[in-house]
Amino acid sequence: MRYPSKLIVTTAFFSTLYFSACATSYGPRNALGGYEESDVGKDLIEVRFYGNQHTTADKTIQLLLYRCAELALERGFDSFVVIQDQSYSDDIVQNPTIRKPFETRETMSAGFRTTVSPDHTRATTSTSWVGVYVVAVFNQNNSFYSQYKRSRFDAQKIINDLKSTVN
Q1: pLDDT confidence of 94, banded at 50, 70, 90?
Q2: 35 and 27 in contact (C-beta within 8 Å)?
Q3: CB contact at 8 A, 134 and 58
């Protein structure tokens, strides 16, 4: 019986590690993104989810809704409504410092050859999405916010529907 070579196992391990580092992790905010929240009033919470350049706007909003649902259930409520959406995108432009935009090399047949490297001269832009909702948490039929029947989110339904997105 043949076992996979060390090179294949090592390559698979580092590939997995590399690609998992790109994704926004679901959890409290860290360098790769995540959520944070603060109370802004009685049963009002400002919830933020920070994506990174590898997270789409849709995925950021799904993770934000999931966190809102978790908070509603953690605080003993079954529903929430989005009072205000303050979501935005952060565009980060990276202008590389050009120390040597031209590279001159000696060739065997033609003497010297000068080239311009596009990697040294082009700015790159990456977009990170930040979802920000101010939500009111409440129990369905037992709150001022019960009148918002069409815009009410059922916290348990959100958890069930988006569980596969988070994991």
Answers
A1: confident
A2: yes
A3: no
Decide: 117 and 103 in contact? Cβ < 8 Å.
yes
Side-chain-side CA neighbours of 47 within 13 Å: the count stands at: 26
Domain boundaries, the chain: 23-92+127-166
Report the distance separating Cα 150 and Cα 63, nearest Å. 21
pLDDT of residue 24: 66
Rg (CA), the chain: 24
In single-letter form, the type of residue at position 20 comes to S
Angle (deg, nearest 10), helices 155-166 and 57-74: 130
Contacts of residue 10, Cβ cutoff 8 Å, sequence gap at least 6: none
Indicate the DSSP class of residue 43: T
Between CA 67 and CA 70 the distance in angstroms is 5
CA angle 31, 16, 92 (to 5 degrees): 35
Alpha carbon separation from 55 to 23, 73, 129 (Å, rounded) = 7, 26, 7
Residues 84, 82, 69, 38, CA torsion sign: positive
pLDDT score, position 8: 60
